[in-house]
Amino acid sequence: MTTTYALLLEYDGRGFVGWQMQPNGLSIQQVLEEAASRLAGGAPVAAAIAGRTDAGVHAEGQVAMITLDRDLPPQRLRDALNFYMKPHAVVVQDVRVAPEGWHPRFNALRRRYRYVILNRRARPALEAGHVWHMPHPLEAGAMAEGARFLLGRHDFTSFRAASCQAKSPLRTLDRLDVRRDGFHIIIETEARSFLHHQVRNMVGTLKLVGAGVWEPAQMAEALAARDRAAAGPTAPPDGLTFMSVDYEPAIF
Amino acid sequence: MTTTYALLLEYDGRGFVGWQMQPNGLSIQQVLEEAASRLAGGAPVAAAIAGRTDAGVHAEGQVAMITLDRDLPPQRLRDALNFYMKPHAVVVQDVRVAPEGWHPRFNALRRRYRYVILNRRARPALEAGHVWHMPHPLEAGAMAEGARFLLGRHDFTSFRAASCQAKSPLRTLDRLDVRRDGFHIIIETEARSFLHHQVRNMVGTLKLVGAGVWEPAQMAEALAARDRAAAGPTAPPDGLTFMSVDYEPAIF
């Protein structure tokens, strides 16, 4: 008899090669799977995830799935995984027994990311590794205006990493809000799913608008070009956080 | 000719022995003074501060003062200090030429601190070093009620470190608010000045109220006892941030 669990994860992406197992360093997947294996008498445990994140990208509300050969109360599983994942900056906030046939990636209805730019001369001291530091003034209003051109269903080839393995470049972007809060520029985005590097490429291109290098309407031209070279550079991972993912019925 | 500058500092207290120079490790004062010395041709530069902070305590809006034998434009001084303080988690956010006779400590009219408790089972991943992790549920409403007994002018001997060097234990506490925001309990406090460890000792005692070990009114008894042993333990430095300090006229 096996039990499948849904896990609500928080992690600090610094010092990890990303979610996925890599030969060149420690991944979040490895930390979680090794902890889960301790609970499976040393047998290997495979974890699936709602949305893979790259090296340096953080998560406040990532969702993962593991299957164990035993029936642990969810809160005991949470505490045990957190114990074995110490001292790594990965924790399980909550655990639920997963519904029959549920998968964190294939059943995800909506994913949310947040990207934070620190827009001031001084580099970050308190937020190092958690923001993209832009010392020159950015115009958040123009960025918000440019962002609106990306909303809706489009071919996002211009904002897709060369390494992206998705079959189709078509995605429906439901939200891409840009607002200033003091020295911070906060970008919040929502979609059923995103292409690889899509958020970081959208942010890197909006930065051109914020800096006055591009007019807001050039976001539409970049999108229409369906050519990665027509959009701006990829923003660094530091400012990006996977915020949450929705399921129907809700898991957490 | 010398020029005195007011500096608005941000720092991450982790890895420092605190503001003040110590033989056993690196202090924020040392990082700042060594950077300032580079701008003084190697001559020693002494920095004064609005409020000394202990090892592990952070600052968002600390104010310091340095005097240099030269007249640098404030924004150039900021950029130069930030350059020389790399890669330490200390930055100068802003610089002003100080008013005649001004001192960051003696002219401070009001200081603000924030203390953040992460109140959930899972240890912090994203906020490690920046919160006090309390896995057992705390009642923020009871803590807020208990906090009100400390407002006003009192002898704060019960909340004062043995090492405190202030002449008088009398202080006027103008604000001590406790509120819950999700898994966070946020404590904000304001006074003209605080005794050594006063904020951390107030928080450590309020935690007893939040946990139901103490009734809110026992805060008044602890205060009236004028005995450090009558109050609760010192909360860890991680959750504490020096937020801001007021001057008249305003400096920043």
From TrEMBL, chains A, B:
Catalysed conversion reaction: uridine(38/39/40) in tRNA = pseudouridine(38/39/40) in tRNA
Name the catalytic site residues: 54 (nucleophile)
The entry marks the following residues as binding substrate, namely 113
Which residues belong to any copy of the Pseudouridine synthase I TruA alpha/beta domain? 10-107, 148-248
Highest taxon of the lineage: Bacteria
Q: What is its EC number?
A: 5.4.99.12
* GO biological process assignments: tRNA pseudouridine synthesis
Keywords (A to Z) from UniProt: Isomerase, tRNA processing
Spell out the molecular function terms from Gene Ontology: RNA binding; tRNA pseudouridine(38-40) synthase activity
**Which Pfam family is one of those matched by this entry?**
PseudoU_synth_1
Which family does the UniProt entry place this protein in?
A: Belongs to the tRNA pseudouridine synthase TruA family.
Subunit description: Homodimer.
The function of this protein is: Formation of pseudouridine at positions 38, 39 and 40 in the anticodon stem and loop of transfer RNAs.
* Name of protein: tRNA pseudouridine synthase A
Species source reads Acidisoma cellulosilyticum
